[in-house]
Design goal:
- Helix content is 30%, strand content 23%.
- The protein has helices spanning 2-5, 66-73, 78-85, 97-102, 116-132, 147-159, 163-171, 227-235, 243-252, 258-268, 316-321, 355-363; strands at 7-17, 24-25, 28-29, 33-40, 51-52, 55-57, 137-138, 174-175, 181-187, 197-206, 219-225, 275-276, 279-283, 286-290, 310-311, 327-333, 336-341.
- α5 (116-132) crosses α6 (147-159) and α8 packs across α9 (243-252).
- The longest helix is centred in the middle third of the chain and has 17 residues, at 116-132.
């Protein structure tokens, strides 16, 4: 059933060191790292003109048995990959093999041909390569990738995802799946977009972000900036962020040091992969996007979209005051939103922080 309602996708949060140190922003020190966001084409059917982390729909070739030979040439058997990436934490739905069998987009994928934890990472790396030109590769025989050759491969992979396997078969090495750490899962809510995606968010770390180029098709712009600077541009209406990006940036803005964030991501990624599907509520002065753990989140969410959007004749402020447990985004307009979280997230994660409140206090 799930495959008829949404498609599986993978997204990559890329963190790089920043040469700007001790930057002060709204009364406190900024991070010493920056993030990469890409601007979607205004003609896109899904989230047009939005700034998002690199990523996209996974392909059946991301789970091809041929990848096992690629990893074997680099010294890793299927058992090695299982030991490295399969943890004791509960599997998210998009990792469950039953989901693949039901998903028409992966109908030709043989069962258990490659570990889902690896296949989704390959998908995130491939989509990042297609959209930004950044290729996360490991165990390379020297440095065989000339920029001109990479651009040719990028064009080829964009036209045919199966060419991503050919890239490594011909040039050696393998996708740097070890550098991707599980971060979060987001499922597109009902009643918001015609298309819906069940997306695995990963995080990775680089010293510098270089040679980034848009494909001028799906992606028409890019931004490399501090998390707080990206949020402020959103508040100032110079760029638009979808709710998952708002929420994740509101987590990241609290961790100031690159090395601290990297250690946290490496350790936390082995604890579990939570997944949020926002549930929309219309109020008398705006709307709510409530998340698991919030008092207003339904015990049995409507994943299909059979139920109408709930309407409550109260203000956002009144609902906030009446709630004990908060995990929500209050929305009053395209650039007027509050992330309100006082719950303890699952699997040792960071709660989102209401940066807009700090931003407005400093402006007043």
């Amino acid at each position: 059933m799930a495959g008829r309602l949404w498609r599986e996708a993978a997204t990559l949060i890329i963190v790089s060191r920043s040469s700007q140190l001790n930057v002060k922003r709204h009364g406190f020190s900024d991070t010493d790292y920056q993030l990469l966001l890409l601007k979607r084409n205004q003609k896109s059917a899904f989230m047009p003109s939005a700034f998002v982390f690199p990523g996209g729909v996974i392909d059946s070739s991301d789970f091809s048995q041929d990848w096992l030979d690629v990893f074997k040439r680099c010294g890793y058997t299927a058992s090695d990959l299982l030991k490295e990436f399969r943890h004791q934490s509960p599997l998210p739905e998009f990792y469950a093999s039953s989901l693949y069998q039901a998903n028409s987009s992966l109908a030709n994928k043989p069962a258990h041909c490659i570990l889902p934890e690896v296949g989704f990472r390959i998908g995130a790396i491939r989509e990042t390569f297609e959209e930004s030109g950044i290729l996360l590769a490991s165990h390379l025989p020297g440095n065989p990738f000339e920029q001109r050759d990479l651009e040719q491969w990028r064009t080829s992979v964009h036209r045919d995802p199966t060419r991503f396997i050919k890239l490594f078969q011909e040039l050696g090495g393998c996708p740097a799946v070890w550098d991707l750490h599980e971060w979060m899962g987001w499922l597109t809510p009902t009643h918001t977009f015609v298309r819906r995606f069940d997306t695995a968010f990963y995080i990775t770390f680089m010293d510098t972000i270089t040679n980034v180029t848009t494909d001028d098709n799906e992606i028409v712009g890019l931004e490399v900036a501090f998390p707080s600077a990206i949020l402020e541009q959103c508040y100032n209406k110079t760029l638009w962020l979808p709710p998952p990006q708002i929420y994740e940036l509101s987590r990241l803005v609290q961790v100031k040091a690159y090395e601290e964030l990297k250690r946290f991501a490496e350790q936390r990624g082995k604890l579990g992969f939570d997944r949020y599907m926002p549930v929309m509520i219309i109020t008398s002065n705006g709307r709510l996007s409530v998340l698991p753990g919030d008092d207003l989140y339904p015990e049995e969410p409507d994943y299909i979209g059979n139920e109408a959007i709930r309407k409550i004749d109260s203000t956002l402020e009144e609902l906030r005051e009446a709630s004990t447990h908060l995990n929500r985004i209050e929305v009053r307009g395209p650039s007027d939103f509050l992330c309100l979280v006082n719950i303890i997230p699952k699997y040792g994660h960071i709660p989102a922080f209401n940066y807009l409140q700090v931003f407005n206090q400093e402006k007043s």
